[in-house]
Amino acid sequence: QSVLTQPPSVSGAPGQRVTISCTGSSSNIGAGYDVHWYQQLPGTAPKLLIYGNSNRPSGVPDRFSGSKSGTSASLAITGLQAEDEADYYCQSYDSSLSAVFGGGTKLTVL
Amino acid sequence: EVQLVESGGGLVKPGGSLRLSCAASGFTFSSYSMNWVRQAPGKGLEWVSSISSSSSYIYYADSVKGRFTISRDNAKNSLYLQMNSLRAEDTAVYYCARDSAGMAMDVWGQGTTVTVSS
Q1: Which of A1, A17, A35, B55 has the fewest CB atoms within 10 Å, i.e. the most exposed one?
Q2: Which residues in chain A touch residue B95, judged by CB atoms under 8 angstroms apart?
């Protein structure tokens, strides 16, 4: 069982907006640690998608956005495209400075 | 080009040992903390261990503490993971990943596969 909780799957039609939640606790997200998001396309290594709760690395489309509030965070994807079909993971740290991941969310583009 | 390349994976019997390596290029390796992250077949990502830029700070997941040892050689731009007393549940793709200034893992290798089976 992962320290951070994500829905196992979400889906949406092309062009729609979807959100993926990431719920932690007072010992990780709620303690003030930043949340980062990764995209893993099938058969490939994870790729950093959002860092520091809401920042996009160079090259990541602005269709992807992140937010954090209290002990939770969210990833939003607008204007869904077929190429967005992937697994998405949130990540933060806990009070022992160990990295913690969510269990991952599989996004299906209908 | 910033790059991380893992090697050293393979098939090993339960109780055996394996040493993974991660070769870094295209950036000043000695300035960054590094991580090992693994992914069991069909499962999610699991952080394994991290090491600070000068090896002063080292952390392990409870699942590997006492069995795995992370180390680095900044002169060789290389990160290592010594894995002892391997178990079937250690079977996974092992990735090395760089820590950015904000502690996000901003560069990942392609992974190396470790299979623990008799």
Answers
A1: A1
A2: 45-46
